[in-house]
Amino acid sequence: MNSTGTLKSSSSELDLDRPNIEDYLPSGAAIQQEPRGKFRLALVLTIGWIIFLSAFIPVHLLLKGHDKLRRNIERSLVEMMCGFFVASWTGVVKYHGPRPSRRPKQVFVANHTSMIDFIILEQMTAFAVIMQKHPGWVGLLQSTILESVGCIWFNRTEAKDREIVARKLRDHVQGTDNNPLLIFPEGTCVNNHYTVMFKKGAFELGCTVCPIAIKYNKIFVDAFWNSRNVFKYWPSLWRVLGSAMTLYGGQSFTTHLLQLMTSWAVVCDVWYLEPQNLKPGETPIEFAERVRDIISTRAGLKMVPWDGYLKYSRPSPKHRERKQQNFAESVLRRLEEK
């Protein structure tokens, strides 16, 4: 269920963890889904895939000589399929502000909670996104369907990928008919309470930056995808599916989707905020921090001074020892003052 509205600056919108539930629920709605209702949601997603593939495959193969027409149809089909995904989660998404448009020399940046951020944004506008390359069925979708909307993939373990991706980004933002470019500058999923430091790549392109703030409400389900979490959901289903579900060192995205589908609803607000440009004398890092502050303020998130990649690796022993030493010295100073 989607709605659009003008951007409001009232403080009540910032406190989205304690909303008026009636604003999100249809009258007479029951809080708990019946098994029959969950089956209908799975059926909705299945029907969506059948309709999508029945149209996408012929269009992709038969209209290769008509690139502009093919791209326009594929854009609409991808938006439609993302709409089916949101419907399968009983998604209640409120969009605030003007809908993004295709213009050269602009890039959209958003805070990042889960891969479903892309789906929620994509159902309104066919963005070309820069995203980590994934294995399994997600990787198959990336290399086939999502490449049709101009998405760009990277691999963190490949140092050469950085140069290639940077060149592709510069080329993409110059195109007049390319889909709007969407970047999640945090580089990893964060729990929707904080924003970690933004990577500066999106802010070095010499183009207008359009911030997008995304805030999920945990009233029915936590939309955060913790790919580093120990696997703990749906253990019996995991035993049945076995290797069909790829575990990325934590909760698989398939499991994450199942969790969302079997929850009551995914409740979310999306704000399209005022475009920003680099100010005279401002560095790309300062620009990134300014945009991060705008997004954090609008979504009611707390800015933290560390990098999102910290969850992928442990601090070095020297770094830990130095922090411990600094802490011990500060404690000793306080004791001496007393």
Brief overview:
The protein has 338 residues and is an alpha/beta fold. Helices cover 39% and strands 13% of the residues.
Task: Write structural notes for this entry.
By secondary structure, the chain is an alpha/beta fold. The chain folds into 2 domains: 53 residues; 192 residues, no CATH class. Helix content is 39%, strand content 13%. The strands form 2 sheets. An 8-stranded mixed sheet has the order 1-2-9-8-3-6-4-5, sandwiched between helices. It has a two-stranded parallel sheet with strand order 7-10.
Strand content: 5-15%
Domain unit count:
2
**Main sheet: strand order:** 1-2-9-8-3-6-4-5
Helices, by number, come to: 9
Q: Write down the secondary-structure element order.
A: EHHEEHEHEHEEEHHEHEH
**Main structural class:** alpha/beta
Low-confidence stretches: 4-18, 26-33, 229-249
Q: What is the mean pLDDT?
A: 78
Query: Strand count, sense and closure of the main sheet?
Result: 8 strands, mixed
Strands, count: 10
Percent range of helical residues: 25-40%
Shape: globular
Rg from alpha-carbon coordinates: 22 Å
**Ends distance:** 60 Å
